[in-house]
């Protein structure tokens, strides 16, 4: 006798990865439910990529008016920044995204269940809704895509600091902000706040932010920080936070105290895997709570899968989406063995001011792997091409912001294994170059490509 499940597929977590895998399964005729405890869309749509990018666009607009308009002969005074107006427009946009998700679920016949899900046995999920009502559902396959949440440091007074979620909850701007951390989120929040006129300080544990990125790129970023007035202090360690009588937050560090209206912890994120019933059922996690999977996204149960930020995959929306879609192609469309390749080339953009785009290896990583090119002694080694120039947007103004670009090429055939840039428009340049690098393009292929003039991206195909 075959067991009848309520669903073919239950997906826990309606963020980037969960939505993608549920929709793709529904498209192939599976009976699917997607369980979400909060707003549909998860981190990216509600407290991540989307609200961040809207604020970044606003910050760029203001910066262009402040720094470029006059030299373009545009006589404009900024009387006020009504941040609450921007936040309202942003939230209205997010509400439209929620609606379009609902249309997608309707088309794909995906049932959305609101509530907190936890496993009670390997095929059964208990959902508790906001009113405390509980219901169980069974499924043949289950995918765990609960995402992550921001970390707080374990120091006294850490609760006086905020996270990126609190940053997105702001409707007015603080006068001053201290951001602790050196990753994407720290750099992006610092750039936005500073561009909106907030006195901004970035404190990093090491000597520079984005230590994994190419050093030349982060040198340029630090140069831009100086020009823009973002204060950066490196090699920081901190002991405690106190709330002062004047309402400010004081962070005590090895390099003195830092007072601000808005202290932000941007020191990393942890998987949202507590209270998911994993221990009860025996789904394996590592010490930090990341769900362990094989390359097919299978946990130690062959019918329970995990993807996205709750696993050790790179914490990027397109990675979660791609993984989710490929998983459903495999489970419900007969595409045997199909899965996200963990060794894929993953292009990424940091929405700093100006943006950073990066694909493939930094010079340092490439040097460690291949060594320096020498026709006689190391023909498999690497060479580097660099260029720094004025973006035409700024060239007719007194604003000093530059574009910096770099190619890392390997071997006598000069295969492009690293492409990095910082400056105006870089965020929109690198997607196509990632396609070329994915199919093994060489420097000669880049050079044989006809440039588009006048653009910034033409520099990538004309470097000497
Ligand atoms: C500030 C910030 C900016 C970012 N910017 C970018 C960017 O520009 N580009 C980019 O590619 N990536 C960006 N990211 C990363 C991106 O948001 C994540 O990689 C992506 O959202 C991960 O998708 P996911 O499906 O794993 O989880 P999430 O999107 O986090 O979704 C998980 C969902 O599961 C729900 N959930 C959790 N547990 C349960 C449960 N037990 N029951 C029911 N529901 C549950 C949560 O409420 C949540 O909605 C950013 C992240 C942050 C924090
Ligand atoms: N533009 C984008 O695509 C984008 C934007 C934001 C976030 N994201 C994704 O979300 C992930 C999480 O972002 P994040 O910035 O929180 O994490 P992160 O892992 O990128 O950076 C965390 C930083 O905090 C530092 N750190 C850790 N512990 C610390 C401590 N105790 N004190 C001081 N510094 C400490 C780390 O050295 C690291 O530089 C990113 O890795 C990225 O994958 C992507």
From TrEMBL:
Binding site for FAD: 53, 309
MF GO annotations: flavin adenine dinucleotide binding; glutathione-disulfide reductase (NADPH) activity; NADP binding
Pfam families for this protein: Pyr_redox_2, Pyr_redox_dim
InterPro entries membership: FAD/NAD-bd_sf, FAD/NAD-binding_dom, FAD/NAD-linked_Rdtase_dimer_sf, Glutathione_Rdtase_euk/bac, GSHR/TRXR-like, Pyr_nuc-diS_OxRdtase, Pyr_nucl-diS_OxRdtase_dimer, Pyr_OxRdtase_I_AS
Cofactor(s), names only, from the UniProt record: FAD
Residues the entry annotates as binding NAD(+): 181-188, 268
Domain (Pyridine nucleotide-disulphide oxidoreductase dimerisation): residue spans on this chain: 346-463
Active site: 453
GO BP field: cell redox homeostasis; cellular response to oxidative stress; glutathione metabolic process
Span of domain FAD/NAD(P)-binding: 7-324
Disulfide-bond pairs as recorded: 44-49
Alphabetical UniProt keywords: Disulfide bond, FAD, Flavoprotein, NAD, Nucleotide-binding, Oxidoreductase, Redox-active center
Keyword Flavoprotein: yes
Record-linked PROSITE patterns: PYRIDINE_REDOX_1
Cofactor annotation remark: Binds 1 FAD per subunit.
GO cellular component: cytosol
Family listed: Belongs to the class-I pyridine nucleotide-disulfide oxidoreductase family.
Full protein name: Glutathione-disulfide reductase
Record lineage: Bacteria, Pseudomonadati, Pseudomonadota, Gammaproteobacteria, Pasteurellales
């Amino acid at each position: 006798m075959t067991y009848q499940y309520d669903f073919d597929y239950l997906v826990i977590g309606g963020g980037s990865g969960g939505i993608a895998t549920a929709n793709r399964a529904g498209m192939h005729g599976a009976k699917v439910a997607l369980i979400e405890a909060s707003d549909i869309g998860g981190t990216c749509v509600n407290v991540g990529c989307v609200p961040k990018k809207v604020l970044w666009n606003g910050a760029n607009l203001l910066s262009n008016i402040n720094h470029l308009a006059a030299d373009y002969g545009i006589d404009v005074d900024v009387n006020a920044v009504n941040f609450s107006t921007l936040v309202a427009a942003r939230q209205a946009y997010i509400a439209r995204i929620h609606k379009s998700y609902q249309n997608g679920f309707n088309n794909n016949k995906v049932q959305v269940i609101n509530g907190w899900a936890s496993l009670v046995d390997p095929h059964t999920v208990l959902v508790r809704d906001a009113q405390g009502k509980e219901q169980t559902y069974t499924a043949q396959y289950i995918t765990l895509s609960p995402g992550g949440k921001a970390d707080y440091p374990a120091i006294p007074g850490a609760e006086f600091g905020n996270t990126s979620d609190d940053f997105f909850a702001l409707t007015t701007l603080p006068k001053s902000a201290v951001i602790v951390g050196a990753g994407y989120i720290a750099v992006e929040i610092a750039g936005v706040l500073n561009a909106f006129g907030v006195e901004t300080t970035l404190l990093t544990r090491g000597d520079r932010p984005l230590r994994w990125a190419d050093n030349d790129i982060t040198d340029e970023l630090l140069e831009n920080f100086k020009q823009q007035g973002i204060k950066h202090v490196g090699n920081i360690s901190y002991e405690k936070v106190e709330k002062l009588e004047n309402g400010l937050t004081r962070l005590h560090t090895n390099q003195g105290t830092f007072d601000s209206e808005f202290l932000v912890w941007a020191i990393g994120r942890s998987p949202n895997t507590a209270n998911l019933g994993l221990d009860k059922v025996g789904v394996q996690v590592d010490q930090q709570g990341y769900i362990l999977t094989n390359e097919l996204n299978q946990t130690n149960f062959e019918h329970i899968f995990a993807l996205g930020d709750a696993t050790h995959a790179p914490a990027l929306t397109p990675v979660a989406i791609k993984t989710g879609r490929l998983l459903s192609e495999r489970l419900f469309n007969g595409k045997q063995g199909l899965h996200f390749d963990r060794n894929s080339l993953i292009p990424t953009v940091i929405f700093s001011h100006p943006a950073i785009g990066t694909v493939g290896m930094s010079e340092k990583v490439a040097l460690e792997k291949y060594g320096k090119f020498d026709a006689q002694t190391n023909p498999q080694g690497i060479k580097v091409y660099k260029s720094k120039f004025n973006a035409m947007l700024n060239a007719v103004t007194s604003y000093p912001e530059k574009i910096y670009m770099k190619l890392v090429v390997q071997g006598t055939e000069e295969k492009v294994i690293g492409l990095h840039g910082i400056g105006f428009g870089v965020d929109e340049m690198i997607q196509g170059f990632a396609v070329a690098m994915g199919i093994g393009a060489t420097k000669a292929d880049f050079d044989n490509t006809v440039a588009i003039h006048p653009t910034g991206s033409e520099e990538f195909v004309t470097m000497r």
